[in-house]
């Protein structure tokens, strides 16, 4: 499969020393990208692109907050000090205890969202493209930043795609539930949102009972898993729920919200996947149908994150098969899957 990536130095303008969601996590990926991989420059989203997902008042507010962040009332409480700051370094402010901004952040976020659109366009043209961008996006709501996320990159990409195709599926394997993406498309039957995530952690949403609303009823699928879940648990969710749901939905495009904070060495959360397992997740989605496939980076903060990204590209470029999952799924997982089958009429 012909692959490419979108990434660039512009993302370094949104940074915060000492914060897990820092530019170094992107920089550390670059040496692990295949030598032959085509890298495209990031492009910004237009206001029109963003307003398909975000309310105009929020965009104006966010841009203003970034520009005037030094006056932000929470700055004194949350700024990183204690010897980390260098002279003349841009000091970020915080919108909440997790989510920082600086004067460049709004512009950088438009590049992350625009690159998700570009990845979608390229993928629809037959080049499987991974937007290696930051800040991440799946927690960002239509009218709110949260969880390191300012603009919802995957959602902006999906909303753009709906101008050109009928149906888009989003597979979100980040350890955290993508509350923003879910809510943005909660009423839609043109976007199938499937999330597998660690339960009882931030943002404390993504229960099995959250299945969509109105026309969107049945088009949101949440598989919360116990901490320490491994590839056998993910295999159960993908083979019994996500893949049959994709086969039934027949999307024109699949967007993977690729969050690798499910790796066992991730410092934030407690799932138990290896880089090779991330390759298997990729293969399962790839093999679920004939749809175009685009990827957008979400979380992933541990030392093996670059290796996992490498496995994703290897799996796609070399058409590697999924590994055979070792072990058996936990009881909690099989119970969740049984419930999901019933809720979503997947037999
Ligand atoms: Zn995450």
Bound small-molecule species: zinc ion
Low-confidence stretches: 70-89
As a percent range, the share of strand residues is: 5-15%
Q: Mean pLDDT, as a whole number?
A: 93
Strand order of the largest sheet: 2-1-5-10-9-6-7-8
Main sheet: strands, sense, barrel: 8 strands, parallel
- Helical amount among residues, as a percent range? 25-40%
Number of helices: 11
Secondary structure category: alpha/beta
What's the shape?
globular
SSE order, one letter for each helix or strand = EHEHHHEEHEHEHEEHEHEHH
* Separation, N- and C-terminal Cα atoms: 31 Å
Number of strands: 10
Radius of gyration: 19 Å
Can you give keywords for this protein?
eight-stranded parallel sheet, single chain, 10 strands, 347 residues, alpha/beta, globular
Outline the fold blueprint.
Elements: E1 3-6, H1 24-27, E2 38-40, H2 47-51, H3 56-67, H4 75-78, E3 93-94, E4 100-101, H5 105-124, E5 128-131, H6 153-161, E6 168-172, H7 179-184, E7 191-198, E8 220-225, H8 231-249, E9 253-258, H9 275-286, E10 292-297, H10 305-317, H11 331-343
Parallel strand pairs: 1-2, 1-5, 5-10, 6-7, 6-9, 7-8, 9-10
Antiparallel strand pairs: 3-4
Helix pairs in contact: 5-6, 8-9, 8-11, 9-10
Residues 174-176, 259, 261, 298-299 line the site of zinc ion.
What does this structure look like?
The chain has 347 residues and is α/β, with parallel strands linked by helices. Helices cover 34% and strands 13% of the residues. It is built from 11 helices and 10 strands. The chain has helices at residues 24-27, 47-51, 56-67, 75-78, 105-124, 153-161, 179-184, 231-249, 275-286, 305-317, 331-343, and strands spanning 3-6, 38-40, 93-94, 100-101, 128-131, 168-172, 191-198, 220-225, 253-258, 292-297. The protein has an 8-stranded parallel sheet, sandwiched between helices. Strands 3-4 form a two-stranded antiparallel ribbon. The longest helix is centred in the first third of the chain and has 20 residues, at 105-124. The radius of gyration is 19 Å and the shape is globular. 54% of the residues are buried. The structure holds zinc ion.
């Amino acid at each position: 499969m012909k692959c490419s990536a979108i990434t660039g130095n512009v993302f370094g303008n949104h940074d915060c020393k000492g914060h897990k969601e820092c530019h170094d996590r992107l920089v550390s990926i670059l040496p692990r990208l295949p030598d032959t991989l085509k890298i495209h420059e990031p492009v910004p989203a237009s206001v029109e692109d963003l307003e398909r997902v975000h309310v105009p008042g929020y965009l104006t507010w966010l841009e203003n907050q970034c520009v005037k962040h030094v006056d932000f009332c929470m700055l004194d409480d949350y700024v990183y000090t204690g010897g980390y700051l260098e002279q003349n370094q841009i000091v970020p402010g915080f919108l909440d205890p997790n989510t920082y901004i600086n004067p460049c952040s709004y512009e950088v976020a438009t590049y992350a969202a625009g690159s998700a659109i570009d990845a979608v366009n390229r993928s629809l043209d037959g080049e499987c493209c991974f937007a290696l961008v930051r800040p991440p996006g799946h927690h960002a709501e239509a009218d709110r930043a949260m969880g390191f996320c300012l603009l919802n990159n995957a959602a902006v990409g999906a909303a753009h795609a709906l101008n050109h195709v009928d149906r888009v599926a989003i597979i979100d394997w980040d350890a955290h539930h993508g509350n923003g993406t879910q809510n943005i498309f909660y009423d839609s039957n043109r976007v199938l949102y499937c999330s597998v995530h660690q339960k009882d952690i931030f943002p404390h949403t993504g229960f099995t009972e959250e299945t969509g609303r109105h026309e969107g009823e049945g088009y949101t699928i949440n598989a919360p898993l116990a901490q320490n879940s491994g590839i056998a648990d993910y295999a159960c969710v993908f083979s019994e729920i996500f893949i049959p749901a994709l086969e039934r939905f027949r999307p024109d495009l699949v967007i993977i919200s690729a969050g690798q904070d499910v790796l066992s060495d991730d410092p934030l959360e407690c799932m138990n996947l290896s880089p090779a397992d991330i390759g298997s997740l990729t293969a399962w989605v790839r093999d679920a149908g004939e749809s175009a496939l685009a990827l957008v980076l979400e979380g992933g903060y541990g030392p093996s994150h670059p290796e996992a990204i490498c496995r994703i590209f290897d799996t796609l470029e070399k058409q590697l098969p999924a590994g055979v999952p070792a072990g058996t799924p936990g009881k909690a997982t099989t119970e969740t899957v049984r419930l999901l089958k019933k809720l979503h009429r997947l037999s």
